[in-house]
Amino acid sequence: MLELRALSFHRAGQPVLDGIDLRLGPGEFVGLLGPNGAGKTTLLRAALGLLPARGHSSLAALPVRERARAAAYMPQGREIAWPMPVEALVALGRIAHPHSASAADRAAIERAIAALHLDPLRHRRATELSGGEQARTLIARALAQETPLLIADEPIAGLDPAAQIDVMRLFRRLAGQGHAVLASLHDLGLAARHCTRLVMLHQGRIAADGPPEAVLTAQNLARVFGITAHVAPGPGGILFQPLDTIGGGAP
User: Fold this and answer.
1) Do residues 136 and 165 make contact, with C-beta atoms less than 8 angstroms apart?
2) What are the boundaries of each domain within the chain?
3) Which letter, b or e, does each residue of 47-59 get, where b requires 16 or more Cβ atoms within 10 Å of its Cβ?
4) Which of 59, 86, 99, 249 has the most crowded Cβ, counting Cβ within 10 A?
5) The pTM is what?
């Protein structure tokens, strides 16, 4: 689904990504973790060919239309500028397909609207929605592309707790159906419970990569995030609770 080899990117002469090697396969829901400034958004954009990075990305190597059929992207920025109905905005996800007004396209749009519980909002102008409703609409637009790979940058930021859980369950179901999902996340607890694999970035490099219990160790959390936490198995997945910053005082 995605292969990155020696992917690097510099900004103002400083390394933001430094030699990233990463592969994603069908059935994986990978949570991309790291503190602010670790390079998460840069990695996602470079993987998509949206930045002039060095190294190899299997997505960036594709022609634009093929890339749009291979991967859907939900960026971190969620500003919706056009006062168009929610249903029409979700339908934009079908543009990359050759027959964007077919019965198959209509069915894909309806599946995406249902998955994000947007039916009551389908005729509302997207610019009039709350921030959380706009986020759900943009996720639905990405889902409507029905691509093998979904890349999402902080998709649950700003959502209420129930909506966050719904989205994480949806991504896990997509992976279970043979898709691959790569999402940058700040909620380590939800990442631990729902992702099949975690990749932890630190200063532009991969600091840890593996199943949640192998990545969310005391050593990794202290080195990368500067925190202590309680991590334990629980019903339905790992339970994660941050406890304190290293040193226990103000920075």
Assistant:
1) no
2) 2-212
3) bbbebebebebbb
4) 86
5) 0.93
Cα–Cα dist 201/98, whole Å? 37
CATH number belonging to domain 2-212: 3.40.50.300
What are the Cα distances from residue 5, in Å, to 25, 27, 151, 180, 231? 15, 21, 18, 18, 32
Four-CA torsion 16, 17, 19, 25, nearest 10 degrees: 170
* Rounded Cα–Cα distance for residues 49 and 43 (Å): 10
Q: 130-167, pLDDT tens digit by residue?
A: 999 999 999 999 999 999 999 999 999 989 999 999 99
Question: Any idea which residue has 């490099």 for tokens?
Answer: 205
Q: Could you give the angle at which helices 103-115 and 131-144 cross, rounded to 10 degrees?
A: 140
Tokens 């990545």: give the residue.
215
Collapsing DSSP to helix, strand or coil, 166 comes out as: helix
Tokens at residue 110, please?
């309806």
